[in-house]
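Both lines are quoted verbatim for reference:

——
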Amino acid sequence: LTFRETLADFLSNCTFSQANLTERGCPLSMIEHWRGGASHDLSILTTLSIYCSIYFVLVAICVSLEVPAGIFVPSFVIGACGGRLIGELMAIAFPEGLRGPDGPQIFPGLYAVVGAAAYTGSVTHSLSIAVIVCETTGQLCALLPVLIALMIGNAISSFLQPSVYESIIRIKNYPHLADLPPSRVSVHTLKVERVMIRDVICITRETTYKELRDILLSTPNLRSYPLVTDMKSKILLGSVARKYLNYLLLQRLGPDPTLLCKERRRLRTPSDLFASTFRRYSSNYNTVTGTFLTDRNISGNTLLANSPLHEIQNERKYYIISF
């Protein structure tokens, strides 16, 4: 079954374990699928437990792979499976409801909705799941139990572990803003100038070839450099891409073996490595610089709207490097 079909079975307003006992039972085709055929060799509790366990492991493996993979829908399906399992247990334990035949009956589909919201909110640490659940089911009757389960699951998971997105950021050592400790008031009054980098590498109109070459060699992992008015005031004018500087140096002064060696050894992202297999067969690919020489990547620089460089029309093409 697909995600949509599986989720529709879990959220269905019927009971797997009471197909032949009451009118609230699920259709025979659905029962045969989840209970091992027409003979019903397997218990619905067994199949749901196996499905939830195996799917939990497979989703964890898929998320850890170096390929784009979703986490929201698989988490929603796992939570719905767990909620459906609890609902079927309640339906078996109380076939006539908690208050008898005259009281409200037990519908495992409602348990699946609450379980899906609670588990997904615990994984993502998001409270907007309640809105998504209401839009998915089209019902507001389950809003109160969904909100209660969502807040409890979110509170417990936040106390034990960060969200799955923050965990991936920490494992991959991606740059991120750390959480401020709530117990220290002095941290909230800390100014940016005490934690920011003061010695920012930047270029000006007076930057020479030697200085520019030294900057490119000393910072092989930077992709862009700020362009300022001068080294004293350092008023930001825009930014210049590293590939644009390499292209200008190659066009004006020819290839530099040391600089090209640094470029080949520069740290690349997985997307760059994946795209490099297709770039080799392009007619516009430059084997010396290792990049496409097109108008898009050559002119991929940023200039502020209020930059004084707009007033210098005649010297626009010389604002990066001076000889």
